[in-house]
Amino acid sequence: MRLEYTERQRAFREEVRQWLSEHLPEKPLECLDTAEGFEAHRAWERTLFDGGWSAVTWPKEYGGRGCGLIDWLIFEEEYWGAGAPLRVNQNGIFLLAPTLMEYGTEAQKQRFLPPMASGEEIWAQGWSEPGAGSDMASLRCSAIRDGDHYVINGQKTWSTRAVYADWLFGLFRTDPASQRHHGLSFILLPLNLPGISIRPIKQLNGQPGFAEIFFDDVRVPAENLIGEEGSGWRIAMATAGFERGLMLRSPGRFQQTAKALVDLYKDNQTQADRDPGIRDAITRGYVAAEAYALATYRTASRLAKGGKIGAESSTNKIFWSELDLLLHETAMKILGARAQLLPHAPEAAGISHWLDGFLFAQAGPIYAGTNEIQRNIIAERVLGMPRA
């Protein structure tokens, strides 16, 4: 596959590059999993929105730029290449928004998309439960219709961004007699409603990137239902397709990490060459990052022609999560004992981001559906193999 950009696309890339050079924060923002860092990242989302860069693929009437997926990939390459801040509202912009575009009413789009794009409302995910992780069809958190409201009881866990977020999107069982993927509904709710309790869950780096959420007779307006009651599984699978297949992990993220790994090797070549496997790992990682980029461009081109993301999105999820592990494990080997230094250590200057990336990469094969589950999906739905 050979990529050739049009004059307009090259001009677009230059426009992105110029804007980022003029608006990037002067120094790195605090970790977005702290209260101060979360608000700093929210302010950055507003800066992106004011410049028209928060959601480049959205229609303009909802706060976007009206660009295609190829433009989005170009934007992401420049964004990651510039070292711009992480997107605190990625759950909303990259996962919920495409779902709303496809299944939401016009009133819901007008209500939720603009404040999502501006960072006024930050979104958390409400998928997993203590007894329903990758097997989401076994969830039990209930939402029972009572007039113009749903009354929610139960628990969600491993809810990304829920400690500081404003809203939650999730899957709830609206038919208490139903089993598995039947009787589930996709509902949106603010996290400040009476009856909601949030308990932070610390990550490996000690920061509360996740939370448990407890619901005790929480009343949610029925107008916050997305699609029809009982159609939640189909809608959630579309959201999972966006998460695994294209939007959540753009190629620019891994291309930039691969380039940084090459630079790290050059700066520590004498030590790195003591392990003959390191150069091979760097080569494999760099080539894999470029291959992932080409595959994503191909997928974007197919979608632009009316195609859909199907079960093959599971192959993407496995690929990028294992690529992330390879890149960061290789960096740890290059750095040796220095890799374990925490960010505040004087000797960690310039390298502490590798430890953060390494710790986060450990979760890659787990979130968005464990890689074991993704392999089952590939076996059954792509290869047509029988269930074990």
Report on the structure:
With 388 residues, this protein is of the alpha+beta class. It has 3 domains: 7-88, Butyryl-Coa Dehydrogenase, subunit A, domain 1 (Orthogonal Bundle), CATH 1.10.540; 124-231, Butyryl-CoA Dehydrogenase, subunit A, domain 2 (Beta Barrel); 249-382, Butyryl-CoA Dehydrogenase, subunit A, domain 3, CATH 1.20.140.10. Helices cover 47% and strands 13% of the residues. The protein contains 12 helices and 8 strands. The strands form 2 sheets. Strands 1-4-5-8 form a 4-stranded mixed β-sheet. The chain has a 4-stranded antiparallel β-sheet with strand order 2-3-7-6, with no helix packed on it. Helix 4 (90-103) packs across helix 6 (232-245), helix 6 (232-245) crosses helix 10 and helix 10 (313-335) runs antiparallel to helix 12 (371-382). The model has no long low-confidence stretch (mean pLDDT 89).
Structural features:
388 residues, Butyryl-Coa Dehydrogenase, subunit A, domain 1, Butyryl-CoA Dehydrogenase, subunit A, domain 2, Butyryl-CoA Dehydrogenase, subunit A, domain 3, 3 domains, 4-stranded mixed β-sheet, 8 strands, 47% helix, globular
